[in-house]
């Protein structure tokens, strides 16, 4: 592996299993709106921001919605999601997550976080790992979500490292696409058949090794 200077992590589904909570919250909303929702469909929502995810779900609804109704549904989903994450503690860190962050730090890499979740700061605090990052992108400042490269480019810029000297770590198809569009090396976390665009795929961060 070349001499990278920074690593930029995704949060949901990589460092902690909040991807499960997003799934449960969207599933309840979809079913209340009479839309079929399953794990396969959810795969397309990973890494997609809140309103973008809602649009994808409502696309298969027989009803039509005003902007105000959409905003109310997105807010309700977020309230449910916040209930689900309210009890998170450092015990909710996925296996290998802290070791991976510490290994990157020990190797002298700058460490960034690029999540489009507006709950990312809360989740990092609950996990007790906010201090392990040199820079966390504020999702509220990002105009275009993943798969657009904006969020990874912003992280690299703020870390002061050219994109070509960064690698990204992602569990979502849209997230891997975002990393590649930013001109970075992509480590996928999950299923290699799903994350086909990644340069390398590991099953979880317990398998993360800098060599
Ligand atoms: C992450 C998750 C998505 C979620 C998005 C927005 O990218 O992978 O499933 O929709 O964040 O999260 P938020 O907490 O802002 O609704
Ligand atoms: Mg993710």
Automatic annotation (TrEMBL):
Which keywords accompany this UniProt record?
A: Carbohydrate metabolism, Isomerase, Magnesium, Metal-binding, Phosphoprotein
Q: What EC number(s) is this enzyme filed under? A: 5.4.2.6
The UniProt record gives the binding positions of Mg(2+) as 10, 12, 170-171
* BP GO annotations: carbohydrate metabolic process
User: Which residues are responsible for catalysis?
Assistant: 10 (proton donor/acceptor), 12 (proton donor/acceptor)
In terms of Pfam families, this protein maps to: Hydrolase
Q: Which GO terms describe its molecular function?
A: beta-phosphoglucomutase activity; magnesium ion binding
Which of the seven top EC classes does this enzyme belong to?
isomerase
Q: Does the keyword GTP-binding apply?
A: no
The answer to whether keyword S-adenosyl-L-methionine applies is no
CDD domains tied to this protein: HAD_BPGM
Catalyses: beta-D-glucose 1-phosphate = beta-D-glucose 6-phosphate
Q: Which InterPro entries match?
A: B-phosphoglucomutase_hydrolase, Beta-PGM, Beta-PGM-like, HAD-like_sf, HAD-SF_hydro_IA, HAD_sf, PGP-like_dom2
**Swiss-Prot/TrEMBL cofactor(s):** Mg(2+)
Binding residues annotated for substrate, in chain numbering: 10-12, 26, 45-50, 53, 77, 115-119, 146
Q: Where is this site: Important for catalytic activity and assists the phosphoryl transfer reaction to Asp8 by balancing charge and orienting the reacting groups?
A: 115, 146
The annotation note on the cofactor reads: Binds 2 magnesium ions per subunit.
Family listed: Belongs to the HAD-like hydrolase superfamily. CbbY/CbbZ/Gph/YieH family.
Give the protein name, as stated in the record.
Answer: Beta-phosphoglucomutase
């Amino acid at each position: 592996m070349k001499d990278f200077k920074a690593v930029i992590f995704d949060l949901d589904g990589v460092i902690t299993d909040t991807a499960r909570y997003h799934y449960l919250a969207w599933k309840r909303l979809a079913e209340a709106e009479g839309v079929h929702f399953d794990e396969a469909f959810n795969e397309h929502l990973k890494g997609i921001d809140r309103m973008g995810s809602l649009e994808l779900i409502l696309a298969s609804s027989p009803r039509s919605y005003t902007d105000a109704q959409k905003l109310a549904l997105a807010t309700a989903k977020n309230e449910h999601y916040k209930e689900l994450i309210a009890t998170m503690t450092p015990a909710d860190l996925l296996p290998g997550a802290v070791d991976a962050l510490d290994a990157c730090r020990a190797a002298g890499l700058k460490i960034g976080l690029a999540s489009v979740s507006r709950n990312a700061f809360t989740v990092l605090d609950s996990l007790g790992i906010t201090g392990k990052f040199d820079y966390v992108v504020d999702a509220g400042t990002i105009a275009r979500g993943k798969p657009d490269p904006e969020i990874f480019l912003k992280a690299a810029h703020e870390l002061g490292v050219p994109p070509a000297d960064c690698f990204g770590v992602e569990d979502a198809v849209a997230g891997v696409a975002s990393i590649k569009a930013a001109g970075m090396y992509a480590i996928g976390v999950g299923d290699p058949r799903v994350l086909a665009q990644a340069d390398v795929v590991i099953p979880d961060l317990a398998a993360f090794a800098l060599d």
